[in-house]
Specification:
single chain, globular, binds pyridoxal-5'-phosphate
Length: 225
């Protein structure tokens, strides 16, 4: 049995401690509870503990789950943190409040087309492939300026933030610092970085939001996602 409420409380204390240590006391870092593969009941426990912001990485999994959850909690904020296929753009725009994984021109154009007719306008973040890893999605840091220009001039989009998943098994600090520099250079508002294993480091480096799954809900079934 996972003590979801206890985990959230502990996490919030830890986040405050990390902010204090980094000289960022009083700054409000948002906690995105990553509920992928977890049940509606588990998410309800988090909601009962005061959590309102959630992250999911598959459109098809998130829609039925959050349609159900929103029946009793209309003020939830849902972030898409996994890859978005262009044929899922309409559904993603209809259900998510933030799409954190804008990672290619083709997707920018598909979002552009959908947003001209949609009644909802999710916030958009650009995913950065900060470690230049071939198996990962995202814009290379050196290409961000050009991609932002494309989004603004060709697609009419206004990305508001950046997100990244740094390489596994190495110190994420230099990657997080580069992300903070990019956020400042391009004057973006949101910086989504840090997961269960490294959120304190991400906060020290300037994250405005962290995405935490297993430290709240427990380990995931590795075969599921
Ligand atoms: C699953 C996932 C997380 C949360 O990972 P944990 O290590 O369980 O905290 C954060 N971000 C993304 C993009 C994810 O896919």
């Amino acid at each position: 049995m996972n003590d979801i409420a206890g985990n959230i409380q502990h996490l919030r204390q830890d986040m405050n401690a990390a902010l204090l240590k980094a000289g960022r006391a009083g700054f409000n870092v948002q906690l995105i509870a990553v509920s992928k593969t977890k049940s509606v009941e588990a998410v309800r426990e988090a909601i009962a503990a005061g959590q309102k912001i959630f992250g999911e990485n598959r459109v098809q999994e998130a829609i039925p789950k959050f349609t159900e959850l929103r029946r009793h909690a209309s003020d939830l904020e849902l972030h898409l943190i996994g890859p978005l296929q262009t044929n899922k753009v309409q559904e993603a725009v209809a259900h998510f409040d933030v799409i954190q994984t804008l990672d290619r021109p083709k997707l920018a154009m598909a979002l552009s087309k959908e947003l001209t007719k949609a009644s909802r306008k999710p916030r958009l973040y650009i995913e950065i492939n900060i470690g230049h890893e071939p198996q990962k999605a995202g814009i290379f840091p050196e290409d961000l300026g050009e991609f932002l220009e494309f989004c603004r001039d060709k697609a009419g989009l206004t990305p508001e933030g950046l997100m990244c998943i740094p390489p596994h098994h190495v110190d994420p600090t230099p990657f997080f610092k580069t992300m903070k520099d990019l956020k400042d250079q391009f004057q973006l508002k949101h910086l989504s970085m840090g997961m269960s294993a490294d959120y304190a480091t991400a906060i020290a480096c300037g994250a405005t939001e962290i995405r935490v799954g297993s430290a709240i809900f427990g380990e995931r079934d590795k075969t599921a996602s």
